[in-house]
Amino acid sequence: MSRITIFQKKVYSIVKKIPKGKTTTYKAIAEQLKTSPRAIGQALKRNPFAPKVPCHRVINSDKSLGGYAGKNYKSKAKLLKKEGLKIIHKKGEIFVR
């Protein structure tokens, strides 16, 4: 396992607080940490603590799923649906309602 950076620890700390059945956005976390949404995505891409750090609960601002476990959108959708969120398939993309 590679070394966890201070930045990643901060991201994981925020994500760990997202309640089951709820989501937040890459942008919202980025604003809290004064960084970019892409930086949040990169930190979550390397999350070795899933599901304890539930990165599947972080979505794009437009409510589309964004990446998960190497772009495995179906897996992310399945986890969110299991938590009670409504999943919408529209124009080749997957959204959370």
Protein model, in words:
By secondary structure, this protein is α+β, with helices and mostly antiparallel strands. The chain has one domain: Winged helix-like DNA-binding domain superfamily/Winged helix DNA-binding domain (Arc Repressor Mutant, subunit A), CATH 1.10.10. 38% of the residues lie in helices and 12% in strands. It is built from four helices and four strands. The chain has helices at residues 6-15, 26-33, 37-45, 73-82; strands at residues 24-25, 58-59, 87-90, 93-96. The strands form two sheets. The protein has a two-stranded parallel sheet with strand order 1-2. Strands 3-4 form a two-stranded antiparallel ribbon. The radius of gyration is 13 Å and the shape is globular.
Instruction: Please bin the fraction of helical residues.
Output: 25-40%
Low-confidence stretches: none
What's the helix-strand series? HEHHEHEE
Quick one: how many beta strands?
4
Figure out the total of helices. Answer: 4
Would you tell me the structural class of the helices and strands?
alpha+beta
CATH homologous superfamily descriptor: Winged helix-like DNA-binding domain superfamily/Winged helix DNA-binding domain
